Amino acid sequence: MNQPAVSPTLDTLFQRTLMRQPHAPALLDPLNKARVTGHQPRQMTYAEADTAIEALSAHFVESGLPANSVIAIQLPNTVEFVLTVLAAHRAGLVVAVLPLLWRHAELTAALNRTAARAIVTMSRVDGVNYSDLAMHAAAEAFSIRHVCGFGTDLPEGMASLDDVLARPPGTTRAVIQDGRKAAMISFDVTAEGFRPVPRPHFSLIAGGLAMSLEADVKQGATLMAAFTPMSFAGLASSLAVWLLSGGTLALHHPFENDVLEQQINEQDCEVLIAPAQLALRLGDADLAARMPTLRNVIGLWRAPEQVAASDAWIAPHAPLTDVYLFGEAGLFGARRGEDGMPVAVMPGPHGAPREQSGSSIAGEILLTPKGTLGLRGPMVPIAAYAPPQPVGETLTAQPPRDYVDTGYAARLDRPSGAICITAPPSGIMAVGGYRFLSNDLQEWARRLGQGALLTALPDRLSGHRLAGRAQDNARAREALSELGLNPLMVEAFRDRSGPV
């Protein structure tokens, strides 16, 4: 009897490399991890990582988490994040990634929307107490049954995963490894509001393939991932690209430029994956002399409308690949030519690599009737972005849509026929990857008191930055905290206009 073909999962890719080279280096922690989390940096081989994954997976099973249930993760860009994601998948769970900038209100909404059964966090990240934050959010999410954390001084009732890693693995369960099964849930903000976006394994792997093939990432390469992993792009660019290459994944918790440069040199990193504006800054600083081991740079653009006007890449020894990000809807990449300028992106199907004839189709780019950019392909979760049913027409079947409208304004360049992305979605702001409706600014400003000012200013690195002014800064911080804004955004609130 013939067995149906089953597409691989992330854990399948990990175990393939494990079987081939168990003692090869797999994961490298940030050099400044002690400052970020209080943990000492770790380096793990594939065999050591597998033992840790097995222990965490057994803990999830023994805790009574049913297969296919959702486990929420709010962790920094460290080894613990990678181990937890792979352990959850090995236990047959679906991972919901929660950005570190999220606070109580957003966490509670995400946990309730996904019916998450557990949450995993770190005791502290950059001085912020995330364990208390998780406990308070879990208290208002009726589906949460287990709260787990890495680090010391965990609140009462939170299970220590450091203790789990210190003892031998326990009970496991058989899980069918099928790439069509749900792997992750990320969260987007559209004109219709807050939106959970589920994805199967093959969609994540498709995103990783689109980047690794376009950038020509070599097998066995050492990758430096300096992009926050709490999104589809973050997981695809770090976890998926690493597992597809079968090499070593070095992690950097964004951003400390000196530490990043030191880590790239000490760990002989060949590929840098980072926000594009950061990559361009490094490229302008004599990259060949300062980081000679780099051979590829993958720059991720949270504001893809800025790519066409960006500066030339002047480090030919390490070509730059621009990756256009469209929230959680999807992405595509385009490697720059010898002149260092962004290449024209044509509508229609695009392969990976883009310029190679006969390459596999990574996706399709189209112009919608509304003059916006649409995406379709294996990485694009069309059902998650289905338009809402018109009021009063619940019994009327809507015409099927086989693409996602990203909301980014776009047009065709007449001489070349290339796609020109001209503006981000109307009514949506982004601060360092944290997306929110522009209407929310009015509510935040109202809470600051009379004479206060809060606005979003364009910023080339993060899309926008919040700037504000208030007579009573202590009250301003208190009001913003009550709305759930992270201290990383609040503490910089100043008398004069400055970034928040």
UniProtKB/TrEMBL annotation:
Pfam families (UniProt xref): AMP-binding
Keyword terms, alphabetized: Ligase
Coiled coil spans: none
GO process annotations (BP): fatty acid metabolic process
Molecular function terms from GO: medium-chain fatty acid-CoA ligase activity
AMP-dependent synthetase/ligase domain ranges (all copies): 14-299
SUPFAM superfamilies: Acetyl-CoA synthetase-like (SSF56801)
Protein name in UniProt: AMP-binding protein
Family that this chain belongs to: Belongs to the ATP-dependent AMP-binding enzyme family.
Signal peptide: none
Highest classification ranks of the organism: Bacteria, Pseudomonadati, Pseudomonadota, Alphaproteobacteria, Hyphomicrobiales
Domain of life: Bacteria
